[in-house]
Amino acid sequence: MAVVHRNFLQWATQLTTARSKSVLEGEEKMLHLDAQTHEGKASAVKLDKLPDHCPLCHYGIEAQLQNKAHVIEGYRGRLEVVLRCPREGCQSFFVARYKMSTYPGTSYFVFVGAAPFEPLDAEFSESMRKISPNFCEIANQAQKAEYQEWKLVAGPGYRKALEFLVRDYLCRARPADDGKIKNMQLGGCIASFVDNDKVREMAKRAAWLGNDETHYTRKWEDKDLEDLKKLIQLTVHWIEMEEMTKSVIEEMPEGKK
Length: 257
Ligand SMILES: [Zn+2]
Fold this sequence. Notes:
alpha+beta, two-stranded antiparallel sheet, 8 helices, about 15% strand, binds zinc ion
């Protein structure tokens, strides 16, 4: 048993040595920079890469180094490097953040993310902006929260966007029922007033998942934010299809003789 144990250790040591060698060879090809510590001392650092996208304009770029890198020393060292976007329409400065590699025997920094990060606006069709500008605004804010990884507030945000979408769509389609549409519970409103089967079935399910985002207990445990977004997209899609169909019929009411 002891022999087997020793052989295993030898094999494991050989494997670790081989791996470390390849990681160290990779380390030689890394980017070398001169950074400064908190006390102003020079510190030569190695990093795995520079970001290949600008966190502000979101274009693919070759980030420009600004000769400013700062090492935050400690148990798990960190590194911050100042960069600039080379695009004429952007030219923004930003900071690439790194943390020390945890791979044994290595001493390079691994790219974590870039800041500040400005999420892009969501795009909506002209008809959707006309039907419910509130939906477009709220969904956009929910998406920004999601991009910032604030998923716990993004979910209720999408739920609120759905509520405005359904009520604005119905108030426009059925002005005579305006009072009831504005005051009834969302689920009841969808069941009572949405005539289009596809819109109703998607909006109903979106409301189920939306409620899970705001209530204390979840009913649909196997569904998540991605499912809610998909159902809202489908609701938007069928509302847009209905709107397009209506406008084509208005433009071409009868066949030409
Ligand atoms: Zn940029």
